[in-house]
Amino acid sequence: MKKLTLVALSLMSSMMLCAQQAHPLAQLIDAARQGPSRAGLAELISTTLTPKGGVAVWGQEFLFVTASDMPATVSINGQPPRPMERVGNSNLWMRLELMRVGVTYAYQYSADGKPLGARSDVSGYNPDSYPKDGVPKGKLSDKHVITSKIYDGMKADFWYYASPGVDPNVPSPLMVWQDGQTLIAGDLSRLRLFTVTENLVAQKRIPPMVHVLIAPGFAPDGKAMRSIEYDTVSDRYNRFLMEEVLPEVEKEYKLRQDGYSRGIAGESSGGICSLNSAWFNPEKFARVHSTIGSFTSIQWHPEDKRAGGNLYPFMVRKMPKRNIRVWMSDGTDDLENDHGSWPLQNIQLANSLKMRGYDFHFRFGNATHDSAQAAIDLPESLAWLWRSYDPAKTSEDFSDGPGGEG
User: Up-side HSE of residue 76: CA atoms within 13 Å toward CB?
Assistant: First the structure.
């Protein structure tokens, strides 16, 4: 194990040397190494992260930054708080740590003995989440806006990204990503989806594909539609995708129509949305990527005889089996509220998939309701979800696939 770790770190170091000069996260970490009084550091933090700070990760180096009018500390994995240093004359406080990769870290900022915001988690990214010299880049579209008839005038933003190897005139595999607005910043977003995709395509571990990135919509009166779109157990969102969004994407890129060549992904309510799509139309979406999935009662309305996501563990057990492949992940510190228990519901669903012999994988970590576990897993989860893909085929029997936990 020790030898493997050293090899992985050596590969990561050589890979990152190639990307060090141009990458904004590498530049920020390099500036932070020079100390908190380094000229322009506060401005660099604000432009690379946010004006209130954040966390930057490059290899084994983790830069923690928070805003506070008083001296701040950071506690990592429940350990005693560590002092942070003031960045110049700003209200930002920083601490640079050297930590191992491949795991998540819980962290909590404090000042004057009181928490600054909620506890969160950060990812120790794996090598395929970093840009590599010589690997071609994909192309992200401009933002598009669609007005939905299916959702009664709702407006939603969407983008599409074509990986290297996509020919606009040849139908491509695709993945639809909910909360797509959180992914368009590339490596400055938590999942680093584009870089992971480019590396896996270059390694031939996934096929060249189009990612469709959709933001939750807003009704004409300004009402947020995210929960209605994502948490409702019905095929309405599928109709929105297939009848309204994907035809717009196909004006630029031809897309495969078979479920075998289509995946759908999301976090939280986006996770249950992904399973909804495959559950109601497995012939159109057969690959599901759900992280911190909200398989809870958010849209359960028994007075209107409307099912909620809390029923999915029992629907999987008692209803006809769907020909789908499912990657799931969650964490021990995920949400507990009046809608339900996120960890318990995900465990229940995984057990139901196991009982029925579904092709699934369940990763259960320690993170809370955030992207940290999904981010370190993404190279593995995408490769697992698309393993053995054959562009000559339009279907595969997933019923005999390997189910399990890890």
Answer: 19
- What is the DSSP annotation of 247-279? HHHTTTS-B--SGGGEEEEEETHHHHHHHHHHH
Residues 6+ apart with CB under 8 A from 165: 136, 201, 207, 208
Give the class (CATH, top level) of 2-124: mainly beta
Tell me, what's the pLDDT at 195? 98
Which residues are paired to 25 by β-bridges?
none
CATH superfamily of 139-405: Alpha/Beta hydrolase fold, catalytic domain (3.40.50.1820)
Sorted by where each begins, the domain ranges of the chain are 2-124, 139-405
CA distance 276 to 293: 11
Residues contacting 332, CB < 8 A, separation 6+: 343, 364, 365, 366
Q: How is 364-384 classified by DSSP, letter by letter?
A: EES--SSSHHHHHHHHHHHHH
pTM: 0.92
Burial 351-390 (b: 16+ CB within 10 A, else e): ebbeebebbbbbbbbbbbbbbbbbbbbbbbbbebbbeebe
- How many C-beta atoms lie closer than 10 Å to residue 335's C-beta? 18
| Bridge partners, residue 394, by sequence | none
Q: Where does the pLDDT of residue 64 fall: very low under 50, low under 70, confident under 90, or very high at 90 and above?
A: very high
Output the six-digit token pair for 52: 């209130």
Residues 403 and 358: beta-carbon distance below 8 Å: yes
Query: Which stretches within 151-203 are classed as H helix?
Result: 193-202
